[in-house]
């Protein structure tokens, strides 16, 4: 009888061990083709303090100029997730209808604008890469190849005529030496086909390291919280000042090339949630 009980307990223990082993094996299965979702949060601020309030929050630039924003919008596209082995998952690359987003401070909820990405392959991701603006490859697909996003961009005031293309970054507000009382408008973007028009290409790609691995599974939806430091606008790698010569500019003039180069450095990942 004792031997029978011993054998029964041994059999049960073996069965539990086998079940756990199979579950662990399934979790680590490199052939697992399941997908999940991922969220990216953009929080715009000055000096990474977050939550710019349009028409209210005032910043002093490195050159001593006061400025605030009445409009703060930019286009994010070509999001790429990079795993621990350096492999890349490109989310609707050069497909603005499905893979481009407008970050508009007017849409912020508690200072944050949310992007939700679906059908992300299960994996552990260590970096995120994205474009600021719309790539030439996507733009040259033509208006029919991005009709949905083009319509959305027009509604959001993030486009010119089709021949000119998209506005990549729209910054509007007021500036001044003592108080911010003079209006400015800086709209960056490519002027159509930059090769044919011999104009600068202002599309930029940014790669950010994640401080914590984003673990995408069918049960876990990571959230990547990105801070955008708009102090870089005038106080980035090149200190800029707004004047009567550049305070009302659209396109890809040298001033707007400098603005673009400054803004390229404004992003950093603050933290990652795996919930």
Task: Describe the fold and architecture.
The chain has one domain. It is 22% helix and 39% strand. The protein contains seven helices and 13 strands. The chain has helices spanning 2-27, 96-99, 136-139, 147-155, 194-197, 232-235, 254-263; strands at 35-45, 59-60, 66-83, 88-90, 101-104, 112-121, 123-132, 169-176, 182-188, 204-216, 222-229, 248-251, 267-274. A hairpin with a 4-residue loop joins strand 3 and strand 4. Mean pLDDT is 91; it is low at 9-27.
SSE pattern, N- to C-terminal: HEEEEHEEEHHEEHEEHEHE
Which percent range fits the helix content? 10-25%
Multimeric state: single chain
Major beta sheet summary: 9 strands, mixed
Q: Any low-confidence stretches, pLDDT <50, length ≥5?
A: 9-27
User: What is the CA-based Rg, rounded?
Assistant: 24 Å
Report how far the terminal alpha carbons are from each other: 50 Å
Number of helices: 7
Query: What is the residue-averaged pLDDT?
Result: 91
Beta content comes to: 35-45%
Protein name: AZL_007920/MXAN_0976 family protein
Organism: Chryseobacterium carnipullorum
Domain Copper-binding protein MbnP-like: 35-249
Keywords: Signal
